[in-house]
């Protein structure tokens, strides 16, 4: 899979995080909804970020997507990532597994 640099990264950021997302294999596992997320560590948390790519479909059934997120300072030891979507598009492509 290609490495996707998040659209909302800043060129002056000094810390890089790789986020790998596995989408399930079941029927209708993929989504066309917009996927948002926030990463929380013991030294801070990100603003709300969005997974996006203009050149190819992401979050398709059975697909592995790799993203690079940049931030201005270290988040420290990571605790969790909160992920949600906007439930857009038709019903069969809005949910995500």
Automatic annotation (TrEMBL):
<dbReference type="GO" id="GO:0050982">
    <property type="term" value="P:detection of mechanical stimulus"/>
</dbReference>
<feature type="domain" description="PLAT">
    <location>
        <begin position="15"/>
        <end position="97"/>
    </location>
</feature>
<dbReference type="GO" id="GO:0016020">
    <property type="term" value="C:membrane"/>
</dbReference>
<protein>
    <recommendedName>
        <fullName>PLAT domain-containing protein</fullName>
    </recommendedName>
</protein>
<dbReference type="InterPro" id="IPR036392">
    <property type="entry name" value="PLAT/LH2_dom_sf"/>
</dbReference>
<dbReference type="GO" id="GO:0005262">
    <property type="term" value="F:calcium channel activity"/>
</dbReference>
<dbReference type="InterPro" id="IPR001024">
    <property type="entry name" value="PLAT/LH2_dom"/>
</dbReference>
<dbReference type="InterPro" id="IPR051223">
    <property type="entry name" value="Polycystin"/>
</dbReference>
<dbReference type="Pfam" id="PF01477">
    <property type="entry name" value="PLAT"/>
</dbReference>
């Amino acid at each position: 899979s290609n490495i996707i640099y998040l659209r909302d990264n800043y060129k002056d950021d000094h810390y890089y995080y790789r986020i790998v997302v596995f989408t399930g294999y079941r029927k209708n596992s993929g989504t066309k909804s917009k996927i948002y997320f926030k990463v929380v560590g013991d030294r801070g948390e990100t603003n709300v970020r969005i997974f996006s790519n203009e050149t190819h479909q992401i979050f398709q059934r059975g697909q592995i997507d790799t993203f690079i997120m940049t931030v201005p300072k270290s988040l420290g030891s990571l605790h969790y990532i909160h992920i949600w979507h906007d439930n857009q598009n038709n019903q069969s492509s809005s949910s995500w597994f």
